[in-house]
Amino acid sequence: MAILITGGSGFLGENLKISLEQEQIEYFAPSSNVMNITDEISIKNYLSGKKIEVVIHLAANSDHKSQECLETNVIGTFNLVNSCKNEQVKHFIFSSTNNVYDYHCKGIFNEIDKLSNMNHYGVSKIMGEYTIRELYHDLTYSILRFSDIYGNGQTQGNLMKNFISNVINDLPINIYGSGVRTRDYLYIDDAVNSIIFALKNKLHGIFNISTGVGTNILELAKTVNLVFNKKEQYNYINIAHEDKTCVILDNNKLTKVGFKPKFTVQAGLEEMRRRM
């Protein structure tokens, strides 16, 4: 099976490549210098003759204020999907996000819930999803909406890293407001394994990839202290407009087809500590 990965040098991509190698699954993971997804000719030239059967599209830009976010997430995804359709690639796996949901609607989201038109990054991912559903409707696609991924080596998403750094260095954890902002935290191994599950089982449709459990900021801080066996120290900071949103992804659809994440937040943090 010939597999193409975009975004292979990112946090999720690097970990996915390690797992594929461990399972002796071969893949291509060209850099953007070799295959630029914003240039359809570049994609066509790279795909030519390789007989790619599966594409795992992880390349994205999360800076919603930049033009590159639009170019990569919307134009790039369209170019890639269109090229894969022309090359008769059988399975397209797309890394989407919990940012597609309307945070102000409710707290627990399933795959048919209302989508957001406020978060620019989320909107760019929604457009990517729409492109896949339209162009790949007669082939197999897996749209995976990931909750907040964390793990060793992460460069984006500083919350978990900052908490761990402060605790290790015996510094208090800063809690902005009351610490009620709630997210569904997904350990990197579970994120990677969900992609491999989608690959092996030719998963078709849209799926939330999550633990289905919410953890607020204060609970997360307490868990970090517990895992690293440190005394709790908090520095509460008053802010005018506290983020009190709750975003938990219902993973029942994925569970019903046979995949369930293994790591709770505490178990994921314990594994992070073991790998340090």
TrEMBL record:
Signal peptide: none annotated. Transmembrane segments: none annotated. Residues 3-209 form the NAD-dependent epimerase/dehydratase domain. Belongs to the NAD(P)-dependent epimerase/dehydratase family. This is Nucleoside-diphosphate-sugar epimerase.
